[in-house]
Specification:
By secondary structure, the chain is an all-alpha fold. It has one domain. The N terminus is likely disordered. The protein has 12 helices and no strands. The chain is 67% helix and 0% strand.
């Protein structure tokens, strides 16, 4: 008998009779943030479009405001040759962005926290950042859809002119992108102030409505009281609306803007700061553990 045959640890002795030795079981690698985030995005989008109440409130509320107020407004803005309807159309697009990104996201996160969904997801192997990737993709998709709806109605029913130059199309793109992300980060951070899902709409909707009124959505911004202008300047909706006015209104309208010009660089800076600030606030205030599900 050889040494290999006599050794109790030899492969021949360790292997089961009539078969080869078993290989160690391999653990499947965990999905990365990108793969998990895309999977979570599909879940988020399916959930949104299957929830008829959320779909109607988030997408249709700005559309209803557009049709109602667009049918009421008439005449020229004082000191300009610009139709008041065109000013309102530019502002309501900013309100639509806020509806899908701030209001929709804050309410949705509050509901998921109250039902225990956030807590359960935090206990899974899914990277936590994938949760926010999914939310951001949902916000981007719904915001683009909302903007397309509002633009289509404004063009068809109220004669809102399309951007006349490539530069204005580019401004529309970055203003929409920065405004969407800034409002989404603000909504995620603001969700910490919502105590439960039952009060979510009551906590979010007043902020949404007040910011519309003081940010130049329903009235020309330069005609608002000075204290309203100062207050609105701290929030992204005012700057988004101003950016959209620079896209759709003639350059002559700059004369009635408080600064006398569109302030595009200032708009980009404020929206970028809101994006970073919202990200920091979300990291500081977001709670993964909500009430236990009974």
């Amino acid at each position: 008998m050889t040494l290999a045959e006599a050794s109790p640890n030899s492969p021949a002795q360790a292997a089961p009779a009539g078969g080869a030795a078993r290989e160690p079981r391999r653990t499947a690698p965990m999905p990365g943030v990108w793969r998990a985030g895309m999977a979570r995005s599909r879940v988020e989008l399916r959930a949104f479009f299957r929830n008829k109440q959320s779909l109607v409130f988030t997408l249709m509320f700005p559309v209803i405001l557009l049709v109602v107020f667009g049918s009421i407004f008439s005449g020229k803005v004082a000191g300009t040759d610009t139709d008041l309807k065109q000013v309102f159309m530019a502002g309501i697009i900013a309100a639509g962005v806020m509806s899908t990104s701030f209001s929709g996201l804050a309410i949705n996160v509050a509901i998921e926290r109250d039902t225990g969904t956030v807590r359960r997801l935090a206990m899974t192997p899914m990277p936590k950042s994938a949760y926010f990737v999914g939310k951001l993709v949902r916000v981007v998709v719904t915001t683009v859809l909302e903007t397309a709806l509002l633009l289509g109605i404004a063009l068809t029913l109220f004669g809102l002119p399309l951007p006349s130059t490539a530069e204005r199309w580019a401004t529309l793109g970055w203003d929409l992108a920065l405004g969407t992300v800034a409002c989404a980060m603000a909504g995620a951070a603001y969700s910490a102030a919502i105590p439960n899902s039952r009060s979510a709409a009551a906590v979010v909707t007043p902020v949404f409505m007040v910011l519309q009124f003081i940010s130049g959505v329903f009235f020309p911004f330069g005609q608002l009281p000075h204290w309203m202008q100062t207050t609105a300047a701290f929030f992204p909706v005012k700057w988004m609306a101003q950016g959209f006015r620079s896209v759709f209104l003639p350059d002559s309208f700059q004369a009635v803007e408080p600064a006398g010009n569109w302030e595009l660089g200032h708009i980009a800076l404020v929206l970028a700061l809101w994006t970073l600030g919202g990200l920091v606030l979300t990291a500081m205030t977001f709670r993964w553990r909500g009430p236990r599900v009974r």
